[in-house]
Amino acid sequence: MTASRMTLIATPGQTVGPFFHDSLRYGGDRDLVPAGSPGAVILRGRVLDGAGDPVPDALVEIWQARPDGTIPRVPGSLCRDGRTFTGFGRSATGPDGDYSFRTLVPGPTEPGRAAFYAVTVFARGLLDRLFTRAYLPGDAAALAADPLLRSLPAERRRTLVASPDERGLVFDLRLQGPDETVFLRYREG
Length: 189
Description:
Residues 39-166 form the Intradiol ring-cleavage dioxygenases domain. One of its GO terms (molecular function) is protocatechuate 3,4-dioxygenase activity. It holds the Pfam family Dioxygenase_C. Helix content is 10%, strand content 25%. By secondary structure, it is mainly beta. The radius of gyration is 18 Å and the shape is globular.
């Protein structure tokens, strides 16, 4: 059969993982800013399965705006230079399903909008990665006005809002079950 007459058919998705902790880490992956940077904050949490048990071999990525709300458009996410803020980080989970990032607090990308971290989760057993957001707590008016949060039932909104603690921000990711994190689906193309 010639290439011009070949018919391609869709194939099923493949589960992802559990190779993240070995294959996808790189130096400084979870440190978007160096220790001691002005305005640095720790964003941390746990990845949990439907039974509430930790997922020890997941990978969490964040993408974010700068504190002034502008989107970084510079190369270098995989080769940190200690100066350039790229807005991207990657953290493999530990034995307790824990992850953490040293980063900056993002600003809203539009006036009146709530600021958030864009979060992606890869884990064994998933056919594809999962997308969600970790909104910053504290600005009740911006959270109430956010189109995505407004589109959700009130009891589900809380799964998208990080909690403050003495070390920074906590955002647990529940992959399924009664307190499942709201995950997003993006249109392709």
